Here is the input.
Amino acid sequence: MASSDPLRTEINFDGIIGPSHNFAGLSPGNLAATRSRGLTSNPRAAALQGVAKMSANLALGLRQGILLPHPRPDHRWLAGLATDFATAPAHLQAQAMSASAMWAANAATVSPAPDSADGRCHLTVANLATLPHRSHEWPETLAQLRLAFANPAFAVYGPVPAPFGDEGAANHMRLAATHGAPGIEIFVYGVRGGPFPARQHFDASQAIARRHRLDPARTFFVQQSEEAIAGGAFHNDVVAVANGKVLFAHEQAFAEKDIFYERLRAAMPEIEIVEVPAASVTLADAIASYLFNAQLVTPPSGEMTLIVPEEARETAPVWNWLQAHIAGNGPIRRLETVDVRESMGNGGGPACLRLRVVADPATIDPRFLVDEARLDRIEEVIAAHWPDAIQASAIADPALVAQIESARRALLEALGIVELIDR
Ligand code: SUG
Here is the structure.
């Protein structure tokens, strides 16, 4: 196992919110997306909100990367179904148009180099096999990962085979003294979710841990509670998040949590488990506000910071709990709020929009890293090309499709990532 490396830092890769962002209500068990079904979306505003979040993260001193919108509609996927966009039935049109690749936490599971027996950073693209509109993301995601992480410091893998559902980093947490030190990796899987699907399967999580050559003594598998999934926590990152030696979770996040916490404490005595009791914040309020779908980060100042959506401020019990924690002696020292309302309308908070990779930035294709100047350029392209609004009933409009396709092309050209244009 590799030892701690000061060159390794955490980079958040945010999915740029694509020009086809719309509210088709394609995710059963995702209460926000179901509520938004049929509403008019605002792709331009959505993407600008995403850029503003990245810009705020840069201002905190964090490293920032990007993943790119996928080609939509996905003609290749439709061809595999022996149809095309103009003649496909409405449900396939909607599934082919989804901008769901924006939620980069579902792009892959990442095991940083210090955790792996071979000293490389391992990434397994998520198969997202449970829901049709997400099941066709992986080939394009894999192409992007293979470009961004082409350096031999990385090992990039194809998906775990279906039917073993895998939704990537949204169901994976890492605890480590510092980012560059060997960590503990936690895989959270679902078995039952009341009326809703359990999207992360145990066998998929186990396959990834084997593939990434993780130390079994430092790898944990824990079941997400049925009540959490049934309550709308379709991914673990809706009810828990980890950073450094802190695990921040809702009391009802895990099945058999006492045994889990005991085993974690034995493996990492310095762990700080910050549990929010249901008596202070109900599961329903935690899910509605996305309190835990926050970015828990350590900026260079060392002050552990929780980046929550505006909705957390607007939910009184959640905001009260956060204020009390900050006023007390807890490990989270600072709060930041971000406005990602358009993404939230589809159940995607600040943490859903990013994939964390611990690596030496010098080993990453620089076209996938951003500074303020590059974000300005991205903002210009979005302002000039992204549709202002999409009515859920009008996603098959040929003029809209043409605008969405040329918008993506304009972005890839501006960023010089031309390999992806006609992949
Ligand atoms: O898979 N929503 C996404 C939200 C993903 C959030 N990601 C994390 N929790 N990490 C999902 O349910 C709705 C899109 C639609 O209905 O068009 C959607 O796919």
